[in-house]
Structure formats: structure tokens, C-alpha cells
Design a protein that fits this description.
Blueprint: H1 2-13, E1 21-23, H2 31-48, E2 56-58, H3 67-77, E3 90-97, E4 113-120, E5 123-124, E6 128-136, E7 142-148, E8 151-154, E9 159-160, E10 162-163, E11 168-172, H4 177-180, E12 189-191, E13 200-210, E14 213-214, E15 221-222, E16 231-236, E17 239-248, E18 253-261, E19 268-275, E20 278-288
Parallel strand pairs: 1-2
Antiparallel strand pairs: 3-4, 3-12, 4-11, 5-10, 6-7, 6-12, 8-9, 8-11, 13-18, 13-20, 14-15, 16-17, 16-19, 17-18, 19-20
Length: 289
């Protein structure tokens, strides 16, 4: 289960303590094979993770089998967080898109839309907003974008007049939809003008921890230290970037990113290197600059 192992390590790196395992597609195998896979899942979590044996729910999403049990488990094991709306709003943009259908008349075009999660604060219809780093030029320069919140929708499609943390939301803006199409602004942050983290390309990864083994490979592979000049994949919040290692030690690394980012200090940084023609998770740390 290389991919499962990689996902679980990522969850542990993020400090996620409570999980539910959904054993999907049980309609495609026999009862005996489904139970054998269930035992493999139990053995993996018990012997290779810090989670012990979590709730494991056999499911057929296609046939709607045990979906009610998944919902019940979510309510039981994932306790709602306290919603705090103090502080400046900060939204991590996970995707962006053009909501206009082909052939829409120019005078009926809608502004670009952004989707993601509000990490702090509160957003309301009519709020002035800034998006950083914004538009990235061909030369790699960042141009912050400014707009206003035209409308807000939940991930279920319901219109709301304000948004608070811990939920996925979609925000309609007055931006040119050409900027937001095809996730053009994914990886940005959104908030009040001039109140967002600085735009940087040179970062430090502090509290660096490299796994003893590379996660996700079919054959167990020993990990090795970061090397000067090595190109690695860098994930910070919703931002996915490439970077070149400029210096590294046992506790931190200096990395020059291919594209500028705007993320708060202290955010978790996940590092991956190219192994077997795919980027594999090798470690993590905290963002500084």
C-alpha cells in the first residue's frame, strides 16, 4: 500500500490526530478478498503508524453501501472546532476558475471565482480583498491583485452573506476570469489589502525532519540528506512549487523557489524529491524567511 503509506505519513506530518479509514469499492471483490484487505489495513495501522487501529468502514460509494456509517463516524470522531473570527481574514486558495460558459455575451460575463478554506477571520460580501502573490509574469515577478467579494457560496452551493473558518467556500470576484481559469490563482492567499504575508522566493525550512525511508515507493528505499543544487517539490499550504536547495543542515534548509509565494511564517512545509519518475514525500519542516 505505497500510496496509503504516503498519505498516512502526510497526515502525521500535519499533526492530524483523528482519522477514519474508508475501505471503498468492496463491490468489486469477493467477501473473502474484502476481509483479507481489511486485515491488511488493520496490520498496517497497528504496526507501522502512530494511530493504532482507527475506525475502518467497508464502503461501496457507487452502490451507497455504509455511507450512513461514514457520516455517523464523522459526527462521532471529528468533533467540531471552536469557530474563532477574531483577527484578519486569511483564505488559502485551493482552486480558481472561470464560471462563464462558452459563448457568453460580454455584458453578461461573471468575474473570476476562487475556492478554498478560510483559516482565520471573517469575510463578508462587499469586502475589499487582495490576492497574493497574485499574477505571476513570464519573468517570475508577482503582481498582487485587488478586487471585492461579490458573492460567497458553501461547497454545497448555498449562498451565504459571510464566511467563517473551518469550511470550504467559493468566492465570486470582479477579477478578469482569464486570471482565474484553470486554477491560475491556486496556491495564493486572500485577505484584506496590505495585511497579507510578504511575497518571497527565498525561504528557510526550520525544524527540518527527514524520514529515514522515502515514502510511497514500491521497493523500500533509504532516504538521504538534501543536497546543494538539488531540485525538490515544495508544498506550503495550498501552494505547490519547485525549489533549488541552496544550503542545508540537519535542522534547516535554504531553498530558492521557482515561483514566489505568500504564506505565513510557521506554516508546515512538505518536501518531496523525484524518485522512480514521481515526486515522493521525504520530510517536512516549518516555513521561515
Amino acid at each position: 500500500m505505497p500510496q496509503t503509506r504516503e498519505h498516512v505519513i502526510a497526515l502525521q506530518s500535519l499533526g492530524i490526530r483523528d482519522i477514519i479509514v474508508v475501505q471503498n469499492k468492496i463491490e468489486l471483490v469477493s467477501k473473502e478478498d474484502a476481509f483479507k484487505n481489511y486485515q491488511q489495513i488493520v496490520s498496517f495501522f497497528e504496526n507501522e503508524t502512530d494511530y493504532g487501529i482507527p475506525p475502518i468502514i467497508p464502503v461501496s460509494a457507487a452502490l451507497g453501501i455504509n455511507i450512513d456509517l461514514v457520516l455517523a463516524a464523522i459526527l462521532q470522531y471529528f468533533k467540531p472546532r471552536e469557530i474563532k473570527t477574531n483577527g484578519d481574514p486569511l483564505m488559502y486558495v485551493a482552486r480558481s476558475f472561470d464560471a462563464n460558459l462558452p459563448g457568453t455575451e460580454p455584458d453578461k460575463l461573471l468575474g473570476g471565482a476562487l475556492g478554498g478554506a478560510l483559516k482565520s477571520g471573517e469575510l463578508k460580501i462587499g469586502d475589499e480583498i487582495e490576492i497574493r502573490p497574485g499574477y505571476i509574469t513570464e519573468k517570475g515577478d508577482a503582481i498582487p491583485l485587488y478586487s471585492e467579494v461579490v458573492s460567497i457560496r458553501t461547497d454545497g452551493g448555498h449562498s451565504i452573506d459571510h464566511a467563517v473558518p473551518h469550511g470550504l467556500i467559493g468566492i465570486a470576484t470582479n477579477l478578469d476570469p482569464g486570471l482565474t481559469k484553470e486554477d491560475g490563482l491556486a496556491g495564493c492567499v486572500l485577505g484584506k489589502p496590505n495585511r497579507l504575508p510578504p511575497i518571497v522566493k527565498d525561504i528557510r525550512v526550520t525544524n527540518l525532519y527527514l524520514f529515514p525511508k522515502i515514502v510511497g515507493t514500491k521497493v523500500e528505499t533509504k532516504n538521504y540528506p538534501l543536497r546543494k543544487g538539488e531540485r525538490i517539490l515544495v508544498n506550503v499550504g495550498t501552494n505547490i512549487n519547485l525549489g533549488i536547495v541552496e544550503n542545508s543542515s540537519d535542522e534547516e534548509a535554504e531553498i530558492k523557489l521557482l515561483r514566489p509565494i505568500s504564506m505565513p511564517k510557521g506554516e508546515i512545509v512538505a518536501l518531496s524529491r523525484l524518485v522512480e519518475r514521481a515526486y515522493r514525500l521525504i520530510g517536512y519542516g516549518r516555513l521561515d524567511y
